[in-house]
Task: inverse folding
């Protein structure tokens, strides 16, 4: 890893060349590099958190002036309970995962001495552009190394001190490993993003981590494929058959455990028959946890007397808003079909859940909701690479090609076809007279 001052084109070209060497390194070398990075970051904890505190001080001043959102400040805080530990553990979790490179996915005998295989391989060069979230550096560097991909990382100015501190430690650590120097590069110059997005000859995939404005800008500004999501408008559908205690736990967790996260719930759909049964306790628990509720008339009428609750009329725009704060839009629906239609129209195809004891309704919900994650009786906050057992993640994708949902090692590999033959040519094959038919025999692997 290196903090590079090279031009964006030179950095991309160097990363491309390094990607070929990295892709051929044995898993033992890649795992050893991850262990070295883990040790180095653990030893530098105090220095890195001090740098992060300097970023936070400036960010909080900017937020007070209205220049930064509170959600971004929250994402920037590396000292938040468990965040540092999760970052370090994620490196070891990635190390312990099965090697994703070189896995045979299919083997077919086309003819005697003519064998076709489909084999997993790295994508090549990743460009990761992120705002805040300094842990992204360690997460993505770990996943890139393990999956055999080169990576170029560009952080936002609000995380500069943290970015430089973490990257300096990782860079020094990787110099003691077999990882090619240009395989993991960190770019700090402010005007480099547009130039990097133009490097479609050398960069294979762009992964944005940040606001919907950042993601939209990137998608509109490059020919390189983009993996990610713009919004995290997650919805929970609360039905009359939901377990009352479980519903309180799931909804409160989904809204309050980390409101600035993209998998935090932003809309609560309430079945009309649940308004007088399950919903009041859920609403009271949300209010007790400081959640401001923006309600439609039917739901507002039921909970208007909750002591100390912040309740106001919802607007149409509220159901298309990612609040990233302790604010929740509430809407009453009559049927499962109405709930599904609302989610598919107003959601962001990220993660949505139904709380119900009706298995048939749950399965129909999960089949018909057009989202990367569809849950039955679970908090939307489960949508996370670490919680899925991916070690960590480069982000969550709402794409419908390649990777979808939390993207870990598998999402950073593609495949290639390998054919091993004996100088065969195609002219002699076919179904006519004198032709040799293709065998197309499936083989074990």
Result:
């Amino acid at each position: 890893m290196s903090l590079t001052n090279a031009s964006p084109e030179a950095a991309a070209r160097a990363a491309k060349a390094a990607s070929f060497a990295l892709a051929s390194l044995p898993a033992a070398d890649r795992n050893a590099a991850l262990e070295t990075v883990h040790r180095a970051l653990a030893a530098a904890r105090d220095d890195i958190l001090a740098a992060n505190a300097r970023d936070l001080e400036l960010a909080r001043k900017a937020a007070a002036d209205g220049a930064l959102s509170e959600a971004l400040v929250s994402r920037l805080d590396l000292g938040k309970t468990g965040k540092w530990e999760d970052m370090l553990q994620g490196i070891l979790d990635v190390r312990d995962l099965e090697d994703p490179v070189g896995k045979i996915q299919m083997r077919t005998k086309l003819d005697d001495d003519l064998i076709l295989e489909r084999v997993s391989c790295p994508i090549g060069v990743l460009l990761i552009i992120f705002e805040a979230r300094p842990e992204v550096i360690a997460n993505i560097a770990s996943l890139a190394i393990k999956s055999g991909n080169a990576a170029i990382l560009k952080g936002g100015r609000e995380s500069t001190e943290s970015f430089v501190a973490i990257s300096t430690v990782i860079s020094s650590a990787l110099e003691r490993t077999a990882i090619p120097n240009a395989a993991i590069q960190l770019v700090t110059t402010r005007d480099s993003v547009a130039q990097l997005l133009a490097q479609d000859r050398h960069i294979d995939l762009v992964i944005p981590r940040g606001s919907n404005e950042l993601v939209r800008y990137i998608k509109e500004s490059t020919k390189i494929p983009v993996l990610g999501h713009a919004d995290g408008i997650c919805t929970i559908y609360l039905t009359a058959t939901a377990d009352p205690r479980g519903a309180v736990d799931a909804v409160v967790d989904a809204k309050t455990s980390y409101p600035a996260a993209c998998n935090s719930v932003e809309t609560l759909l309430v079945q009309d028959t649940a308004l007088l049964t399950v919903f009041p306790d859920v609403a009271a628990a949300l209010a007790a946890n400081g959640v401001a509720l923006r309600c439609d008339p039917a739901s507002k009428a039921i909970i208007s007397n909750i002591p100390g609750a912040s309740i106001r009329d919802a607007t149409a725009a509220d159901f298309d808003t990612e609040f990233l704060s302790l604010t929740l839009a509430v809407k009453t629906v009559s049927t499962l079909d109405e709930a599904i239609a609302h989610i598919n129209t107003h959601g962001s195809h990220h993660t949505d859940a139904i709380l119900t004891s009706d298995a048939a309704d749950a399965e129909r919900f999960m089949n018909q909701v057009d989202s990367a994650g569809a849950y039955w009786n679970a908090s939307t906050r489960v949508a996370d690479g670490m919680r899925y057992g991916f070690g960590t993640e480069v982000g969550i994708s709402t794409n419908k090609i390649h990777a979808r949902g939390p993207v870990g090692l598998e999402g950073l590999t593609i495949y290639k076809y390998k054919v091993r033959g004996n100088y065969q040519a195609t002219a002699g094959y076919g179904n006519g007279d004198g032709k040799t038919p293709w065998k197309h025999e499936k083989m074990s692997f």
